[in-house]
Amino acid sequence: MKKIAIIGATSGYGREILNMLEENGFSANDIFAVDTDSPLGTQISYGEDVDMDVYNLRDFDFGSAQIAVFCVSEDLVKHYVPRALAKEVTVIDCSGTYAADSEVPLIIAGMNDEKIVDAKRGIIALPSPQVTQLMLPLQQIFKRYAIKRMVINTYMAASVYGKEAMDELFNQTRKIFMNEPIVDDENVFHKQIAFNVLPQVGEFIGDETKQEWEMNVEIKKIIGQNIKVHANCAIVPVFIGIGAFINVECEQEVDVDDIRNQMRDIKGVVVFDKHVDCGYVSMNDVQSESDVYVSRLRQDVSVENGFSFWSVADDLRAGIAQNAYKVLKLVLKK
Q: Residue 228: its pLDDT value, please?
């Protein structure tokens, strides 16, 4: 069995990938849990009965692993990926650092698995969780109806910024209830996030934020450059998950019932669409779930050949960890 290193094992993404490995029978002896600035003796649970030692990234010998899954910041990815490649380690990057690199395949397992042969540099990139979340339900629609334009509005939980952001949301909420000032808890968002919505995810790149720019680039890279994409991203005061309204315009006349059936046939996608009071899935419903959920599917009469739908998923598990695990299996099989 090839040895696997999870870089950023104590992060939200890293923990979920470890959970998925344990749930699918991977032995702790074949896995290295690695993180930044981990003091000697640090451990992380692996299932109910095993505690794994956490190696310090600064001192980790990449030569002891054959595959490394990176769940750390872009700065750390840029610094340590060359070290891994120098040891002939296959890299799976969850950070988005290489998503726009034309020489690195961007993989959604089950959708474009064949692209893995393009990983000639030894790097495989994963798209952002929100792109995986909306691409999975649409993978057959691209082929059947020739999508030409998408308008996407995402409502993203604090988890997209990591544990510090989730802690900040919790602390602000508690202090507001206690009538205490929150100025010392505005370090991640630089604004009040509790009981608020912030129309910014990532720094600004011109008129767009980084997440909006990345969604445009990633979608075009996965399905082709001809599609037009307009993305709007906001942070909402939720701990985990991403909700999105997606408006889709196609070249051909659309049949919403056929689209619904196409989505139902996709493994990992659950269509729960009752069109009655509470006949939909919310962000709170999908925490710790591995599937992507679709609701509110309907015709978009504002354009010719259009439809729209609501999608929710756990960004940590369904958005990243599930895809990382499936890509890891492709690498092992290859």
A: 95
